[in-house]
C-alpha cells in the first residue's frame, strides 16, 4: 500500500484512484517532468510470486500493443525491489460502475449508444489483434472527460488472453494456463465451465451483460454468493431488460439478448456486428411497405383491423391496422371511415333566392354518346302541337268540301266515287243518280 509522497522510481504518489483484488491504482507525478500519470502496482504480498508478477507485467505489454483511442494507453513499466508497476495515462472522469451507481434513472438510448459504440470500437480492435479481454465489466470501462467531451476507454487487460498469431499458423488464440478468472457477474457460461474456453464471443457475452446494466441501470445477475450467480448465468436466468426498464429502446433490448445468448454461436460474431445492431436499432416503421389502401368506390364502412398474410405463409392473422405511411393519391383512401362531422345548421334560403344560383350553374357539356343518341332519336314535340295540327286540317277539309258543293250547284254533298252513302244528320239516305 502506497501513501501520498511515496516515490516509486521516478513517480511520486499523489493519491489512490482505485483497485481490486490484485492491484492498486494511484495518481502519480513524474518527478523530473512534472507530468501526471496513473500507476498501477501489484499488491505487495503478491509481488514475490514470480508467475503472478510476470502475468501482471504481461498486461502492460498486451495493452501497450493496442494503440486505439478507446483503449487506455500504457506508457511505462516500473520494476523495483518489492514493486511491479504499470505507468498509464491519467484519466480525468469516472469509471462506468461509479457513473451507474450515481444515476437516478437509466441513461437515454442515445447516451447508451454513444458510450457503448466506443466500447465496441475498442474491443473490435483488440479482437482483431488477437486479444480477448476476459474481464469486461463496468469498472473496467472509464468515461474520460477530454475538453468537455466524453471519451470512453477500456482498461484492465490484466487477465487478457493473447493469441500469438506469429506462432499459431491457424491464428487461434493461445491460452495461458492458470489465468485468473473474471468477475462472476459478467462471466460467460463457457468461461464459468472452463477458463480456457473463452473466445471473442465470451467477451461479447460480458459486453451484453454490461450493456444490460448500462441501459437499465440495474445489474443483470445478482445472488447471495458467487456460486448462486454463476448458476443463474449457466442457466440463462435473468429478468428481461425491458421488464427492469420498460422504457428501454426495443433495438437495445434485442441487441442485449442476442449478445447474451447461452450458446456462443447465437451471439454476435464480432463487436463490429454488435455495433452495427446498435446503429440499426431505430425501430423500422411497422409494415410500412403495405399501407392499407382501398379504392374510393369500394370503401367499406369500417375496418378497424386488417387481415394480412403471415410472412411464413401460415394462415393470415389479424393484426392492428398499420398507420398509413403514404397517401399517394386522392383516389385512395383509408379503410377507416372519416370521422363524421355534424355541420353547423344554417337557415334555409328562400326558394326564389336559391333558384338563380341553380340557373347560373353551367350545364355539363354533353358526352359523345349523348350527342349520338340525340341524332338518332325521332324529333320530339309537345302533344298540344299535334292536336292543333289535326284541328286545322279538319277545318281546311270542311271548308274545301263546302266550297266544292257551292260550285257544283247542289245543296247535297256528293258521295265519294263508288263510296258508301253519306248520312246527313236529320236527313234520309239519298242516292245520286245519273
Ligand atoms: N489510468 C487511470 N486513470 C484514472 N483512474 C484509473 C486509471 N486506471 C484505473 N483507474 C481507476 O482504478 C480502478 C481500478 O483499475 P483497474 O485497472 O481496473 O484495476 P484492477 O485490476 O484492480 O481492477 C478503475 O476502475 C478506475 O476507477
Ligand atoms: Mg479492473
Automatic annotation (TrEMBL):
Gene3D superfamilies the UniProt entry points to:
Phosphorylase Kinase, domain 1 (3.30.200.20), Transferase(Phosphotransferase) domain 1 (1.10.510.10)
Q: Name one GO molecular function term.
A: ATP binding
TM region(s), chain numbering? 384-407
Q: Which region ranges are annotated with the description Disordered? A: 305-380, 410-434
Tell me where in this chain the Protein kinase domain is found: 11-279
Would you say which domain of life the source belongs to?
Answer: Bacteria
Q: Which SMART domains match?
A: S_TKc (SM00220)
Ordered alphabetically, the record's keywords are: ATP-binding, Kinase, Membrane, Nucleotide-binding, Serine/threonine-protein kinase, Transferase, Transmembrane, Transmembrane helix
Q: Give a Pfam family name.
A: Pkinase
Per the record, where are the segments of Low complexity compositional bias? Answer: 326-350, 410-421
Q: Which InterPro entries match?
A: Kinase-like_dom_sf, Prot_kinase_dom, Ser/Thr_kinase_AS
PANTHER family in UniProt: MITOGEN-ACTIVATED PROTEIN KINASE KINASE KINASE 20-RELATED, SERINE_THREONINE-PROTEIN KINASE NEKL-3
| Protein name (Swiss-Prot/TrEMBL) | Serine/threonine protein kinase PrkC, regulator of stationary phase
Amino acid at each position: 500500500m502506497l501513501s501520498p509522497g511515496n516515490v516509486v522510481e521516478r513517480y511520486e504518489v499523489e493519491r489512490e484512484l482505485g483497485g481490486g483484488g490484485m492491484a492498486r491504482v494511484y495518481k502519480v507525478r513524474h518527478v523530473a517532468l512534472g507530468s501526471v500519470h496513473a500507476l498501477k502496482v501489484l499488491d505487495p504480498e503478491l509481488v514475490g510470486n514470480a508467475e503472478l508478477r510476470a502475468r501482471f507485467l504481461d498486461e502492460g505489454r498486451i495493452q501497450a500493443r493496442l494503440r486505439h483511442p478507446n483503449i487506455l494507453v500504457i506508457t511505462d513499466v516500473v520494476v523495483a525491489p518489492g514493486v511491479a508497476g504499470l505507468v498509464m495515462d491519467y484519466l480525468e472522469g469516472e469509471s462506468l460502475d461509479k457513473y451507474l451507481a450515481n444515476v437516478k434513472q437509466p441513461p437515454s438510448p442515445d447516451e447508451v449508444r454513444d458510450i457503448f459504440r466506443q466500447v465496441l470500437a475498442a474491443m473490435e480492435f483488440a479482437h482483431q489483434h488477437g486479444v480477448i479481454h476476459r474481464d469486461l465489466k463496468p469498472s473496467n470501462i472509464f468515461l474520460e472527460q477530454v475538453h468537455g467531451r466524453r471519451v470512453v476507454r477500456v482498461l484492465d487487460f490484466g487477465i487478457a488472453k493473447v493469441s500469438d498469431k506469429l506462432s499459431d499458423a491457424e491464428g487461434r488464440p493461445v491460452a495461458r494456463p492458470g489465468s485468473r478468472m473474471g468477475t462472476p457477474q459478467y462471466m460467460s457460461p463457457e468461461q464459468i465451465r472452463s477458463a480456457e474456453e473463452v473466445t471473442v464471443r465470451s467477451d461479447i457475452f460480458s459486453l451484453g451483460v454490461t450493456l444490460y446494466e448500462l441501459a437499465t441501470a440495474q445489474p443483470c445477475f445478482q445472488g447471495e454468493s458467487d456460486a448462486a450467480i454463476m448458476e443463474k448465468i449457466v442457466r440463462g436466468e435473468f429478468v428481461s431488460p425491458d421488464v427492469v426498464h420498460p422504457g428501454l429502446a426495443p433495438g437495445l433490448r434485442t441487441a442485449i439478448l442476442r449478445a447474451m445468448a447461452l450458446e456462443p454461436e447465437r451471439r454476435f460474431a464480432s463487436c463490429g456486428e454488435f455495433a452495427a445492431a446498435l446503429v440499426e436499432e431505430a425501430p423500422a416503421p411497422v409494415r410500412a411497405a403495405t399501407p392499407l389502401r382501398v379504392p374510393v368506390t369500394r370503401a367499406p364502412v369500417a375496418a378497424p383491423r386488417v387481415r394480412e398474410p403471415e410472412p411464413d405463409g401460415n394462415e393470415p392473422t389479424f393484426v392492428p391496422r398499420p398507420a398509413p405511411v403514404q397517401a399517394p393519391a386522392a383516389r385512395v383512401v383509408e379503410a377507416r371511415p372519416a370521422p363524421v362531422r355534424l355541420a353547423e345548421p344554417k337557415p334555409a334560403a328562400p326558394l326564389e333566392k336559391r333558384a338563380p344560383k341553380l340557373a347560373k350553374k353551367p350545364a355539363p357539356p354533353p358526352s359523345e354518346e349523348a350527342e349520338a343518341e340525340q341524332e338518332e332519336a325521332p324529333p320530339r314535340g309537345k302533344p298540344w302541337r299535334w292536336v292543333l295540327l289535326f284541328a286545322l286540317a279538319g277545318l281546311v277539309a270542311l271548308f274545301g268540301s263546302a266550297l266544292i258543293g257551292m260550285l257544283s250547284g247542289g245543296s247535297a254533298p256528293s258521295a265519294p266515287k263508288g263510296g258508301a252513302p253519306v248520312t246527313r244528320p236529320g236527313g234520309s239516305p239519298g242516292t245520286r243518280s245519273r
